[in-house]
Amino acid sequence: MTPDDVRRIALELPAATEKSHFGKPDFRVRDRVFATLPEDGNAVIKLTRDQQEMMCGAEPAIFRPVDGGWGKQGWTVAVLAAADETTLRSALVTAWRNTAPITLRKAFDLAGG
């Protein structure tokens, strides 16, 4: 997968927009960041700590916590070169769900579990 794939999938999500975070592309829902594209060719997504632990344990070649305090808050690197579309889409939808207001999630039937 590539940064362009992240952009395409992220912007398909309801009310998602692309802006910039410290000069790097980011993806937001209602002005809250759910994913970023740092310059290293990977993506960073917003997960809960439990989701992060599950994804990193299940797919360690794809997911790892961001270094430092941000990683302890659930921010997770997705190694795009190792990801397939299904896995990347699932991670981005999860990050979107974690960020979108409940009314928006329900309106688009993406409330999840």
Automatic annotation (TrEMBL):
Record Gene3D superfamilies: 3.90.1150.30
Database matches in Pfam families: YjbR
Domain of life: Bacteria
InterPro entries: YjbR-like_sf, YjbR/MT2646/Rv2570-like
Protein name: MmcQ/YjbR family DNA-binding protein
Species classification: Bacteria, Pseudomonadati, Pseudomonadota, Alphaproteobacteria, Hyphomicrobiales
